DNA sequence: TCCACATTTCGATGATAATGGAAACGTCCA
DNA sequence: TGGACGTTTCCATTATCATCGAAATGTGGA
């Protein structure tokens, strides 16, 4: 059986700790210059460049030249979700240093999962949407109810347009820190975008971590009826 | 077994061609003695033992001693599904030999996907169940309708009992040969078990392939209204 | 008790590949 | 035009690891 050729090449990308670190860093969905990725993975720029070239060749990441920088990002959402899935499969990583544990706390609290919100905040919001009857869990699917249609429209989301996108509209994504599901798909992306636009959440520089603002706490309390800190 | 499963170690399991071959072989959900797995992967027993020990340490496979044999199997259904998912992610592999292409044809036709049916037969059956209104696709979820409840009960399945199991009841599983969904979860497993019990399908020795019997063709034509060969 | 067989452990080997130093390339800026 | 900087290419080193021969372990059968 040699169906393993392709599988192996994909998996071998992630099997290297340095590449895994790079990919993990790219999971925030943003573009990153090669140097940053090298620093994030704790390797020299040469080595990072070597790995990035390999990943680009396989189509996992794409490059964009801007001046003397080269910005890398994960090519497709499906790839990012695959990596997140591997994460949930692998379970939480062992904590080594205090600094890591600190960063870990932030990530557990709220972070980007490629293009949508993840972490405790995302899980709590998703739960709230369900208990309010706006979303209905149905396996890995999160069904938008009639009241949900109104709620999201009221929130400023253009649902018909989100449905048009060539990707899953509303689905669960296993949160690897919370071990619970949070909202993903086009709806998860749209909701996250909207909340960031309203300055409820602010993305941290060079990190997947996301910070909740004062307005965010207030707004979330009003809209979702939950208190985050 | 300390599951220090970090991403890299999980991925490196699959990244090695020999281990991938072993895992692929184990995807039929059965127990296999170490020697068989070595033969399947085209490596010596020592090497296979080395790999199996590694996988057991990570908790991906479990061992069972029976006499002088040691039977290995994939520890959890969720692990198996993850591997299947990786397969669909990687896509079909290039065919090398005639023999492989022959085996491949069989696999494409009907095979076990850990504990439920996969391949063309499974996809066609799933489609038929949907167009008959017994199942309703809803994202990654396959909802059992009222008529479906009756249909499956009539088929000899104890749905309440299947629902009790600590796993997804009814869901889609991406078929990597057909690139379509087929029925998985407890319901998929139950349906497959029932059809094998009725001798509609017969599992081949030492392979994931499944053969349809004459009774099977007839029964499937009557019950599902489709013709397989 | 002895042999056959399945499997594992040990040890050595060889191939692969990650790594970083040196240097080149291109871009930005003064 | 020259120098700083981000990035890549080239290259040599090194570490890792899959592999298999040899031998050990353990089980079943005669």
3D architecture notes:
Two copies of one chain form a homodimer. By secondary structure, chain A is α+β, with helices and mostly antiparallel strands. The first copy, chain A, has two domains: 4-75, Winged helix-like DNA-binding domain superfamily/Winged helix DNA-binding domain (Arc Repressor Mutant, subunit A); 98-224, no CATH class. Chain A contains eleven helices and eleven strands. In chain A, the strands form five sheets. A three-stranded antiparallel sheet of chain A has the order 1-3-2. A two-stranded antiparallel sheet of chain A has the order 4-5. In chain A, helix 2 crosses helix 3 (34-41) and helix 3 crosses helix 4. The A-B interface holds A 1-17, 20, 24, 78, 82, 85-87, 89-91, 93-94, 138-143, 168-171 and B 3-17, 20-21, 24-25, 40, 78-79, 82, 85-87, 89-94, 96, 100, 103, 138-143, 168-171. Chain A binds a DNA duplex (30 and 30 nucleotides) through residues 16, 18, 33-35, 43-51, 53, 67-70.
Output the structural class of chain A: alpha+beta
Give the tally of β-strands of chain A: 11
Q: What portion of residues of chain A belong to β-strands?
A: 15-25%
Report the average pLDDT across residues of chain A: 84
Oligomeric description of these chains: homodimer
Q: Kindly provide the radius of gyration of chain A, computed on alpha-carbon positions and rounded to a whole number of angstroms.
A: 18 Å
Helix content of chain A: 40-55%
Distance between the termini of chain A: 52 Å
Spatial sequence of strands, sheet with the most strands of chain A: 1-3-2
Q: What is the domain tally of chain A?
A: 2
Biggest interface, CB < 8 A = A-B, 39 and 45 residues
The poorly predicted ranges of chain A are 1-5
Which sheet architecture does the biggest sheet of chain A show?
3 strands, antiparallel
């Amino acid at each position: 059986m040699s169906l393993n050729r392709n599988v192996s090449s994909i998996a071998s990308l992630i099997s290297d700790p340095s590449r895994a670190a790079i990919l993990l860093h790219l999971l925030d969905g943003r573009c990153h210059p090669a140097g940053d990725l090298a620093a994030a993975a704790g390797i020299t720029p040469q080595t990072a460049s070597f790995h990035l070239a390999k990943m680009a060749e396989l189509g996992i990441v794409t490059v964009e030249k801007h001046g003397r920088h080269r910005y890398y990002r994960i090519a497709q959402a499906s790839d990012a979700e695959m990596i997140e899935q591997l994460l949930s499969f692998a379970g939480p990583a062992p904590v080594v240093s205090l600094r890591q544990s600190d960063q870990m706390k932030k990530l557990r609290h709220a972070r980007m999962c490629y293009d949508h919100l993840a972490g405790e905040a995302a899980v709590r919001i998703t739960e709230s949407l369900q208990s309010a009857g706006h979303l209905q869990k149905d396996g890995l699917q999160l069904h938008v109810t009639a009241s949900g249609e109104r709620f999201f429209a009221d929130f400023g989301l253009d649902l018909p347009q989100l449905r048009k996108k060539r990707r899953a509209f509303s689905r669960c994504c296993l949160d690897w820190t919370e071990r619970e599901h949070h909202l993903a798909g086009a709806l998860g992306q749209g909701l996250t975008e909207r909340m960031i636009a309203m300055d409820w959440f602010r993305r941290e520089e060079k990190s997947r971590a996301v910070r909740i603002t004062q307005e965010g706490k207030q707004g979330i309390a009003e809209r979702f009826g939950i208190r985050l800190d």
